[in-house]
From TrEMBL:
<protein>
    <submittedName>
        <fullName>Hydrogenase iron-sulfur subunit</fullName>
    </submittedName>
</protein>
<keyword id="KW-0408">Iron</keyword>
<keyword id="KW-0560">Oxidoreductase</keyword>
<dbReference type="GO" id="GO:0046872">
    <property type="term" value="F:metal ion binding"/>
</dbReference>
<dbReference type="GO" id="GO:0051536">
    <property type="term" value="F:iron-sulfur cluster binding"/>
</dbReference>
<feature type="domain" description="F420-non-reducing hydrogenase iron-sulfur subunit D">
    <location>
        <begin position="10"/>
        <end position="132"/>
    </location>
</feature>
<keyword id="KW-0479">Metal-binding</keyword>
<keyword id="KW-0411">Iron-sulfur</keyword>
<dbReference type="GO" id="GO:0016491">
    <property type="term" value="F:oxidoreductase activity"/>
</dbReference>
<dbReference type="InterPro" id="IPR003813">
    <property type="entry name" value="MvhD/FlpD"/>
</dbReference>
<dbReference type="Pfam" id="PF02662">
    <property type="entry name" value="FlpD"/>
</dbReference>
Length: 141
C-alpha cells in the first residue's frame, strides 16, 4: 500500500459456522489477503437485519460483505436463503439511495474454504477500491 492511498472501510458480517471458520482457516494457513475488512460474527446470516447494512453505510462503510454457509448447509436450515432474499431487496434499496449495489455482496464460504475466503476478500476489496469512497461518505465531507 502506497502512503496516502485511500483505504476502503469494508464490513464483513459472517456466520459463525462456515464463513467465520473459513476465515479462521485462512489465518491458520497463513493465506495472505487484504487487511481492509473488519468482521462481525453472527450465528447465522439469517440474523442479518437489513438495518445492520443501512447502519454500516450510514456510519461510513464503503462496502459490506455478508458471508455464510452454502445453500443446504445452514445450521438453522433456511437462514441463508432468507438472507439471500433480503440482500436482493437491499441491493435495490441501495440503488434507490444512490449507492452502487455492488458495494453489498453476499457470498458462501464453508469452514474448509480458507483459500476461497481469501479470494472473496481480494475481490470485494478490489471492487470497492474501483468504486471509490461511498457516495454517502462523500456527502458527509
Ligand atoms: S448457519 Fe451459516 S448461514 Fe445459517
Amino acid at each position: 500500500m502506497a502512503e496516502g492511498e485511500w483505504q476502503p472501510k469494508i464490513l464483513a458480517i459472517i456466520c459463525n459456522w462456515c464463513s467465520y471458520a473459513g476465515a479462521d482457516l485462512a489465518g491458520s494457513a497463513r493465506i495472505q489477503y487484504p487487511p481492509d475488512v473488519r468482521a462481525i460474527r453472527v450465528m447465522c446470516t439469517g440474523r442479518v437485519d437489513p438495518l445492520f447494512i443501512m447502519k454500516a453505510f450510514a456510519d461510513g462503510a464503503d462496502g459490506v460483505l455478508v458471508s455464510g454457509c452454502h445453500f443446504g448447509d445452514c445450521h438453522y436450515i433456511a437462514g441463508n436463503y432468507k438472507c439471500a432474499k433480503r440482500m436482493f431487496l437491499m441491493k435495490s434499496v441501495l440503488k434507490d439511495l444512490g449507492i452502487e449495489d455492488n458495494r453489498l455482496r453476499m457470498t458462501f464460504v464453508s469452514a474448509s474454504e480458507g483459500a476461497k475466503w481469501a479470494k472473496v476478500i481480494e475481490d470485494v476489496v478490489k471492487t470497492v477500491k474501483d468504486l471509490g469512497p461511498s457516495p454517502l461518505n462523500q456527502l458527509q465531507q
